[in-house]
Amino acid sequence: MEDSLLELKVHDVSDKIINDVIPALRIINVIYEFDKNIDLTVMGEAEILVDVQGNANENKMFSIIKTALVCFILFLGAGLAIVNFHADVNMDQSLQIIYHMVTGEENHKPLILLIPYSIGIGTGMTVFFNHMLQKKWKKEPSPLQVEMFMYQKNIDDYILDKTKHN
User: Fold this and answer.
1) Gyration radius (Cα) of the chain, Å
2) What is d(CA 164, CA 144) in angstroms, rounded to the nearest whole number?
3) Residue 50 DSSP symbol
4) How far apart are the C-alpha atoms of 111 and 57, rounded to whole Å?
């Protein structure tokens, strides 16, 4: 029965439409036309947002170049953000003071503190985003995955509202 229901045609897709909304009542009517003895219970949203995607004719090499360029720009942006933060809080002087307090010596480039500090920033970001190992310690999503989920949900809600009102 499930295979037969999955084969039912519910909606026609136009070439010009990118997003469309299908009300749950339309799906219920199509199923009842197929078999009136089916007992249905709707769970979730009353409308379904359909994202119509055309054939992916984009060149793979172009996609790889775009991805590499975005990664490079994000890497530079993250580096500049960290450098500017450290300049704002005067991290060099802070590390010099800590070095002087621990050793009693003056050192303008305390590498014994700078190197572990730099490694700690990278390790801390990796652990924070929960991608240090393939096997996660916890079964919870990373902050980045939560933000991406919320971003996609907001986009879907916006498109759903805009499509319903048109």
Assistant:
1) 27
2) 30
3) E
4) 51
- Rounded Cα gap, residues 85 and 79, in angstroms: 10
Give how far Cα 32 sits from Cα of 23, 28, 47, 52, Å: 15, 6, 18, 26
User: Between the CA of residue 52 and those of 14, 35, 87, 106, 142, what are the distances in Å?
Assistant: 9, 28, 48, 65, 29
pLDDT digits (tens, 9 = 90+) for 36-63: 888 888 887 788 877 777 655 668 889 8
Q: Are strands 47-51 and 19-23 parallel, antiparallel or unpaired?
A: antiparallel
Average the pLDDT over 58-84 and give the result: 89
Q: Which of 21, 14, 26 is nearest to 48 (CA)?
A: 21
Nearest to 27 by CA among 48, 50, 52, 44: 48
The backbone torsions φ and ψ at residue 94, rounded to the nearest 5 degrees and listed phi first, read -60, -45
Q: 0.85 cut: is pTM over it?
A: no
DSSP track, 107-166:
-SS-HHHHHHHHHHHHHHHHHHTT-SSSS-SSSSPPHHHHHHHHHHHHHHHHHHHHHHH-
Percent of the chain topping pLDDT 70: 89
* Structure token pair of residue 31: 């199923």
Q: Under a CB-based contact definition with an 8 Å cutoff, are residues 32 and 56 in contact?
A: no
